[in-house]
C-alpha cells in the first residue's frame, strides 16, 4: 500500500483547523457524608446558593447551606446509590424547569420529568425555579374577576386575577374540591391552570388527574406532583416549580391559576430538610425562615402592569389545620401573606353544607373590586345576612317563641343556606349565580319547602336557560343588574314557579 504524503498532510491540516478546544472548567467536590436526602460536600468553594450540582448517579442536587468548610446539598432524586467519596460537579446554573405550551396537559414532577408516561417535555423554554417577585412599580391593582363557578365563593369571597386566596380548614372538608371546581370553571376563559400536589397520596393525585381529564380540563392544566413518597426536597421545591411554569404565561401577557395543595405539607418538608441541615429550629420546630419560604412564593402571584403586558397569576394556596386551629404557626403565617381566606369547617361539612365555607370568618380583601356589577348588587349584604341568621339560629334552638318577623328571617336564612349548597363539578356561570341569589334574597323562594330548595334551583336554572336564553346571554355579555334585567329575572322566576310541580324527586 502506498501513502500519499500530501493527502495525509491535508487531512491532518483539516483536522487541526477544525479542532475546537473547549475547556470546560467546572468545580468538583467530594461527598463527605450522605443520608436522609442531604449530602455534605467538600471542595465546592465557589458554588452559589441555590446552584445545581450533579452526582455520579445522575441525581441533581441543590446547594442549600454554604458553610465554611463544606456545602450542604439537598438531593432532588435518588440518594440511596450515592456514596461517600463520590464526585460532585457544580453545574453553574440555578435550578430551572421546562415551561411554555409543552407543559400544558402534562403530569410532571417538580423537575419537569414526566410522570404520565408521555415521554419527556419537548420545550426550548426553561425558567428558573426561584426568582425575586416583581416589584411594586410593575404591578397593578386586581380588577378582573376570576370566577370559581361556586356560588358561595363568587358571591361572598370573590377572587380577582392576581389575587392569593387561601383555602384553609381541617382534613377532609372539601378544600381540594373547591380548588378543582375553580380549575374546571376556567374552561374557555384563557386561564392556564397549574395544580401542584405536595405530599399527597399518589392515589389522590391520580383521582384529581382523572377528574381533570374527564371534564376536559387537562387541555389547559398542568399537574406538578411530589407525592408523599417523594423525597422532602422535591416536595419543598414543587410549589416554586409550578409557579415558574405559570410565570411563563404571566410574563407573556397571559393569565394563570396556581393551586398549591397543600402548603402545610411543604412546610413540613422544609422543616425536615432544615433540621437535617442542622439549622436552628424555632417555633413548632420550624426553621426561622419558614415565613419567608411562603411569602416569597406567594408574592410571585401578581397582576402585572400594562407595560409588562397585564398578565396575572392567581393562586389558591391550601392549608390544612388541626382541629380548626387557625392560630398555629403556619396557618397564621399564610393568612397574613394572602389576600383573604376561605375557611371550611368540618361541622358545616358534615351537616351537609357543601362547600363548607363559614361566611362569618371567610374574607376576600381585594376581590370586591373584581366582582361584576350584577354580582356585587345581589350579593351585597348576603354575608351579614347569613351571619345574622347563624346567630338567630343558635338563639332559636333555645326553644323560645319567636315573633313573626324573626321567624321570617329564620325561614329565609334556612333557604339561603340551602341555596348556597352546590354539588362538585357543577360550576355555574355568573348569570346563573346572579339569578339564583336574586331569587333567594328577594324572597322568591320563601314558599318553597326548605328540603326542595336545591331541586327547585336546579330546575329553575334549567327553565331559565331553556325558555329565557336571551336573558342569560344578555347578562353574560353585560353583567349588570339594570331595572330591565331585574324585571326579566322576576318574570322568568315567576313563570317557572307557575309550572314547578314541587315534591322531592
Ligand atoms: N360540594 C361538595 N359536594 C359534595 N361532596 C363534596 C363536595 N366537596 C367535597 N366533597 C366530598 O368530600 C370529600 C372530601 O373532599 P376533599 O378531598 O376535597 O377534601 P380535602 O379537605 O381536600 O381533604 P384532604 O384533607 O384529604 O386533602 C370528597 O369525597 C369529596 O368528593
Ligand atoms: Mg385535599
From TrEMBL:
EC class of the enzyme, as a word: translocase
Record keywords, A-Z: ATP synthesis, ATP-binding, Cell membrane, CF(1), Hydrogen ion transport, Ion transport, Membrane, Nucleotide-binding, Translocase, Transport
Site feature (Required for activity) residues: 362
Subcellular location: Cell membrane; Membrane
Annotated ATP binding sites: 169-176
Gene3D superfamilies, per database record: 2.40.30.20, ATP synthase alpha/beta chain, C-terminal domain (1.20.150.20), P-loop containing nucleotide triphosphate hydrolases (3.40.50.300)
Catalytic activity: ATP + H2O + 4 H(+)(in) = ADP + phosphate + 5 H(+)(out)
Membrane topology: Peripheral membrane protein
Residue intervals of the ATP synthase alpha subunit C-terminal domain: 371-496
Entries under InterPro entries matching the protein: ATP_synth_asu-like_sf (IPR023366), ATP_synth_asu_C (IPR000793), ATP_synth_asu_C_sf (IPR038376), ATP_synth_F1_a_nt-bd_dom (IPR033732), ATP_synth_F1_asu (IPR005294), ATPase_F1/V1/A1_a/bsu_N (IPR004100), ATPase_F1/V1/A1_a/bsu_N_sf (IPR036121), ATPase_F1/V1/A1_a/bsu_nucl-bd (IPR000194)
Stretches that traverse the bilayer: none
Function according to Swiss-Prot or TrEMBL: Produces ATP from ADP in the presence of a proton gradient across the membrane. The alpha chain is a regulatory subunit.
Protein name in UniProt: ATP synthase subunit alpha
Amino acid at each position: 500500500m502506498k501513502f500519499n504524503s500530501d493527502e495525509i498532510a491535508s487531512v491532518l491540516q483539516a483536522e487541526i483547523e477544525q479542532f475546537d478546544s473547549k475547556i470546560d472548567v467546572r468545580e468538583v467536590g467530594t461527598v463527605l457524608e450522605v443520608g436522609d436526602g442531604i449530602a455534605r460536600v467538600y471542595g465546592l468553594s465557589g458554588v452559589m446558593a441555590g446552584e445545581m450540582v450533579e452526582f455520579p448517579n445522575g441525581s441533581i442536587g441543590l446547594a442549600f447551606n454554604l458553610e465554611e468548610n463544606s456545602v450542604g446539598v439537598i438531593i432532588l432524586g435518588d440518594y440511596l446509590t450515592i456514596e461517600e467519596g463520590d464526585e460532585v460537579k457544580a453545574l453553574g446554573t440555578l435550578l430551572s424547569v421546562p415551561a411554555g405550551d409543552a407543559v400544558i396537559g402534562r403530569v410532571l414532577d417538580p423537575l419537569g420529568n414526566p410522570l404520565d408516561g408521555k415521554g419527556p417535555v419537548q420545550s426550548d423554554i426553561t425558567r428558573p425555579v426561584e426568582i425575586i417577585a416583581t416589584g411594586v412599580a410593575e404591578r397593578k391593582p386586581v380588577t378582573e374577576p376570576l370566577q370559581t363557578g361556586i356560588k358561595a365563593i363568587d358571591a361572598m369571597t370573590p377572587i380577582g386575577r392576581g389575587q392569593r386566596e387561601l383555602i384553609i380548614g381541617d382534613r377532609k372538608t372539601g378544600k381540594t374540591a373547591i380548588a378543582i371546581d375553580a380549575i374546571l370553571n376556567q374552561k374557555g376563559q384563557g386561564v392556564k391552570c397549574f395544580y401542584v400536589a405536595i405530599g399527597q397520596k399518589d392515589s389522590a393525585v391520580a383521582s384529581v388527574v382523572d377528574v381533570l381529564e374527564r371534564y376536559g380540563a387537562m387541555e389547559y392544566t398542568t399537574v406538578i406532583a411530589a407525592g408523599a413518597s417523594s423525597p422532602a426536597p422535591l416536595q419543598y421545591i414543587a410549589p416554586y416549580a409550578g409557579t415558574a411554569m405559570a410565570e411563563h404565561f404571566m410574563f407573556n401577557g397571559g393569565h394563570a391559576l396556581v393551586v398549591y395543595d397543600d402548603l402545610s405539607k411543604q412546610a413540613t418538608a422544609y422543616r425536615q430538610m432544615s433540621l437535617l441541615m442542622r439549622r436552628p429550629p424555632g417555633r413548632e420546630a420550624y426553621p426561622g425562615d419558614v415565613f419567608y419560604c411562603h411569602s416569597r412564593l406567594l408574592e410571585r402571584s401578581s397582576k402585572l402592569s400594562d407595560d409588562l403586558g397585564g398578565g396575572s397569576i392567581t393562586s389558591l394556596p391550601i392549608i390544612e389545620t388541626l382541629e380548626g386551629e387557625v392560630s398555629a404557626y403556619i396557618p397564621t403565617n399564610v393568612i397574613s401573606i394572602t389576600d383573604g381566606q376561605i375557611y371550611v369547617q368540618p361541622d358545616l361539612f358534615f351537616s351537609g353544607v357543601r362547600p363548607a365555607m363559614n361566611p362569618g370568618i371567610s374574607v376576600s380583601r381585594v376581590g370586591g373590586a373584581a366582582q361584576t356589577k350584577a354580582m356585587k348588587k345581589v350579593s351585597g349584604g348576603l354575608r351579614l345576612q347569613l351571619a345574622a341568621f347563624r346567630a338567630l339560629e343558635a338563639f332559636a334552638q333555645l326553644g323560645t317563641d319567636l315573633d313573626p318577623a324573626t321567624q321570617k328571617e329564620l325561614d329565609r336564612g334556612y333557604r339561603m343556606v340551602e341555596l348556597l349548597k352546590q354539588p362538585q363539578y357543577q360550576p355555574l356561570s355568573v348569570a346563573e349565580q346572579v339569578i339564583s341569589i336574586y331569587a333567594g334574597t328577594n324572597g322568591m323562594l320563601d314558599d318553597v319547602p326548605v328540603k326542595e330548595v336545591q331541586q327547585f334551583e336546579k330546575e329553575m336554572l334549567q327553565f331559565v336557560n331553556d325558555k329565557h336564553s336571551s336573558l342569560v346571554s344578555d347578562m353574560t355579555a353585560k353583567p349588570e343588574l339594570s331595572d330591565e334585567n331585574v324585571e326579566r329575572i322576576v318574570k322568568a322566576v315567576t313563570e317557572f314557579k307557575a309550572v314547578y310541580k314541587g315534591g322531592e324527586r
